[in-house]
Amino acid sequence: MTDQMEPVDDATKYRRKIDNTLARFSAAHDEMAAEEAKRKERLSRLTAAPVKLIEQTRTKLQRVVHPGEGAAKPRPHPLAHLRAGSAEETEAEPDENSAAPQTRLQEKKQRRVDRSAKAGRITAIVLACLMFVLSAGGWGMKTWFNSKFNQIAALDENSADIQNAAGQLGDENFLIAGSDTRAGAEAEEGVGTADSVGGARSDSLMIAHIPADRKRVIVVGFPRDLEVNRPDCKRWDSNTGQYLEEVVPAKSKAKLNEAYAIGGPQCTTKQIQQLTGMKINHFVGIDFHGFKDMINVVGGVPVHIEEPVIDDVLGVIVPQAGEQVITGDQALNFVRARHVKGDVTSDYGRIKRQQLVIGSLLKKTMSQEVLFDGGKLTGFVNAFTAATFGDNLGVDQMLTLAQSMKGLNPDTVKFITVPTTGEANNRGNEVLLEKKSKELFAALIENGPLPDEKAAAPPPSTPSSTGTTQQGQAKPGN
């Protein structure tokens, strides 16, 4: 260091300049050291608070889950290495069990935080247990429901009759067959007995087509007397639900319902896929005798009647027009009647009534009145499974069908009948309109607009006296 009293020459000035520079560096170093110490102190406080809260939370959670087991053994501080580093350059912090006293406001805030944390932990535990119980219960209920469905082989999803199978990927096609079996029928129903009317035929046959995008549902009904070329089929015993080894040869100019009477669900599916080219991936068979039990369980179904329904054989079925709720035997006669006054043919009016009741039943089943009533829902499932059978049929599949149709919105659910001449031929059969039916089923397979939904071509433009076309555009100059 230089003495300020020594003679000032160039060498002295140079040494003093060096001394001043070193002094400034030393001061800057001291300031930086102080700042670093403060930073480490702040970091220590910030890291200590969360760790303390973690330790408190862990201990309280142990008390909630394992009450009475005493305090947990102390564990090494998770950030001990940081705290050790700061302790070397700052004063030692108080032990966490001897923290500085808090103000009343701080104590009140801490108690509120502790209560909220405890409530949150308890809620999380309860919710986790509840979700587990509900999941297990829901799985068990679904398994129980599925076990009650009667499965009978019906499908052939690799049939050569299926057209554009790749294009139908994701579509759900339900083939719904209503059986006219008299097994279990009561005398007051007036439909005969199993002895007087043996076997079973497809009294009602329809396809519910739900495209992959699930934006709409098309239900196509088939007349039971539609004239078809029946394929060869294994014989089916409707009493046992078993297929026999006997093969019944194919037959031309047969009635559609013969397929079910001879070969059951398999032959019916084979016939429909041959007729439509559609891939049937669900079969639902319904015994109409049990059909009335489903309707009774849900308290009847609402239907809109254009005019009173009076049948020449069954008598007065629905005496008044308008909105009606039909139940039990009345509903059964409503869907079975084939000689109703005012029907153009014996089948067309019946198909519309069947579609109306089935759609209304699905809508009623999906309503809060049934879904939130354990007794009604269980009763419906029991009645449904007792009266139905099928292939690829269960809770998930039926929910898909029911949810798609529950609103019965005309914009999303459309009921149609396969196009025929509308008159019986000399064999008493309905005759299919080949060209129109091919257009219909092609539209369903391709998920395009139906034939009656295609916009008509605009009229050709014609010159007018004002020099413009009918579309309002000026004619080009010559």
UniProtKB/TrEMBL annotation:
<dbReference type="InterPro" id="IPR004474">
    <property type="entry name" value="LytR_CpsA_psr"/>
</dbReference>
<dbReference type="InterPro" id="IPR050922">
    <property type="entry name" value="LytR/CpsA/Psr_CW_biosynth"/>
</dbReference>
<feature type="compositionally biased region" description="Basic and acidic residues">
    <location>
        <begin position="105"/>
        <end position="114"/>
    </location>
</feature>
<feature type="transmembrane region" description="Helical">
    <location>
        <begin position="119"/>
        <end position="141"/>
    </location>
</feature>
<feature type="compositionally biased region" description="Low complexity">
    <location>
        <begin position="463"/>
        <end position="478"/>
    </location>
</feature>
<feature type="domain" description="Cell envelope-related transcriptional attenuator">
    <location>
        <begin position="201"/>
        <end position="365"/>
    </location>
</feature>
<feature type="region of interest" description="Disordered">
    <location>
        <begin position="445"/>
        <end position="478"/>
    </location>
</feature>
<keyword id="KW-1133">Transmembrane helix</keyword>
<keyword id="KW-0812">Transmembrane</keyword>
<dbReference type="Pfam" id="PF03816">
    <property type="entry name" value="LytR_cpsA_psr"/>
</dbReference>
<protein>
    <submittedName>
        <fullName>LytR family transcriptional regulator</fullName>
    </submittedName>
</protein>
<feature type="region of interest" description="Disordered">
    <location>
        <begin position="84"/>
        <end position="114"/>
    </location>
</feature>
<keyword id="KW-0472">Membrane</keyword>
<comment type="similarity">
    <text>Belongs to the LytR/CpsA/Psr (LCP) family.</text>
</comment>
